[in-house]
Design a protein that fits this description.
mainly alpha, Tetracycline Repressor, domain 2, 10 helices, about 80% helix, elongated
C-alpha cells in the first residue's frame, strides 16, 4: 500500500535527519535507512522539497498523537502543580528516546521553514489537547489575553527544550514553575 510505504519512508527520513542533520538528509540516505531498493524514496517523494514536506507532515501527525495520548493519561489540571507536572512530563518526553529524535528533527525543520513557506504552513502550531488544557487552566484563573499567554508559555517551554537538546540535561522544574507563575500574573 502506497500510504504505508510513504509512512515508512517519512519515518526513515525523520531518523536520518535526527542522526545526520539537514545535510545528511538525501533520498539515498533514506533508502538505506528504510532498507528499500535504491530509488524508492525518489519514486514516492520526487524532490527534496517533497521529501521534507512528507517528513514534516509525519512529524506533525506523530506530535498530535503524542498530545492526545498524554492528555488522556494526565489528570485534569486543577492546580499550578498539576500544570507544572504536565510540563515536566512533556519536556522529559521531548528530551529522551524517540521524543528526543523527533525534537531534533522538529527544530531542524523549523529552521528550514524560515526559507520554505510550505514547511512553515505545515509546522504552524496546531490546536491540540495540551494547548486547550493550558488555555482553559489560564482562563479559569482570570488571566487576560489567554491566547497570547498560552502561546508565550508554550513557546517558552519549547525554548527550554531546545536549550536542553543543545546543552544536555533536563529542564529544571523551577524554570517551568517560573514560567507558569509569569503566565498567571
Amino acid at each position: 500500500m502506497a500510504s504505508d510505504r510513504r509512512t515508512l519512508l517519512a519515518d526513515a527520513a525523520l531518523d536520518v535527519l535526527a542522526d545526520e542533520g539537514m545535510r545528511g538528509l538525501t533520498h539515498r540516505a533514506v533508502d538505506r535507512r528504510a532498507a528499500v531498493p535504491p530509488g524508492t524514496t525518489s519514486a514516492y517523494f520526487r524532490t527534496r522539497a517533497a521529501l521534507l514536506a512528507g517528513l514534516v507532515s509525519r512529524l506533525v501527525r506523530l506530535d498530535q498523537a503524542e498530545f492526545r495520548t498524554t492528555a488522556e493519561e494526565l489528570p485534569p489540571l486543577r492546580t499550578v502543580e498539576d500544570l507544572v507536572d504536565g510540563m515536566v512530563a512533556l519536556t522529559r518526553q521531548r528530551l529522551t528516546g524517540e521524543g528526543r529524535r523527533r525534537s531534533l528533527a522538529r527544530h531542524a525543520c523549523a529552521v528550514e521553514s524560515v526559507r520554505d513557506k510550505e514547511l512553515r504552513e505545515i509546522l504552524v502550531p496546531r490546536e491540540n489537547a495540551g494547548r486547550a488544557a493550558v488555555r482553559l487552566f489560564l482562563a479559569e484563573r482570570g488571566v487576560t489575553d489567554v491566547e497570547n499567554r498560552t502561546h508565550t508559555l508554550l513557546t517558552c517551554v519549547d525554548g527550554l527544550v531546545f536549550d536542553r537538546l543543545v546543552n544536555g540535561g533536563e529542564v529544571p522544574r523551577e524554570a517551568l514553575e517560573g514560567l507558569v507563575t509569569a503566565a498567571l500574573r
